[in-house]
């Protein structure tokens, strides 16, 4: 569903989150001394975009997808992912992640985004009228009004390509 032009704001946020996932993957294994910076960045992204994004999907996109019985199981999976990811983000906010759990959240978030962007979930958009899509797009825009409009800049500790210490 995320390919229609009325839903582009959700796709932009997917790109921001995927950028974080790629940087986590490329920095892994993360040095223990950098773990706090990664958790802080993840917490900031969650507060400024991801949680707002999840709510928009849950209140706007998923109910529309549920109109089509073949998507109920997928929506249930995506909702379960939201719950699991929220627990992981809570660990990051509490600075309770390990190096392994940081890597795991990057992998899980990436898989979640790719599943939500799958062609199977986009098909309902082809069944909605232009008016329905425009209305849904307006609701998404309203739901995302408080979200950050720019990508978070990495810190020195989380920047891609930075020389890093390999944990022993």
In words, what does this structure look like?
The protein is elongated. α1 runs antiparallel to α2 and α2 runs antiparallel to α6. With 168 residues, the chain is mostly helical. It has a single domain, classed as Four Helix Bundle (Hemerythrin (Met), subunit A). The longest helix is centred in the first third of the chain and has 32 residues. The model has no long low-confidence stretch (mean pLDDT 81).
Distance between the first and last residues' Cα: 44 Å
Task: Give the % helix.
Answer: 55-70%
The amount of beta strand, in percent, is: under 5%
- Tell me which CATH architecture applies here: Up-down Bundle
Q: Write the element-wise H/E pattern from the N-terminal end onward.
A: HHHHHH
Structural class: mainly alpha
Q: Which CATH first-tier class would you pick?
A: Mainly Alpha
The overall strand count is: 0
Largest sheet: number of strands, sense, barrel closure: none
Number of helices: 6
Arithmetic mean pLDDT: 81
Q: Characteristics of this structure?
A:
168 residues; mainly alpha; 68% helix; elongated
Task: Give a brief description.
This protein is mostly helical.
List the helices and strands and how they pair.
Layout: H1 8-27, H2 35-66, H3 72-93, H4 99-116, H5 119-127, H6 130-143
Helix pairs in contact: 1-2, 1-4, 2-3, 2-6, 3-4
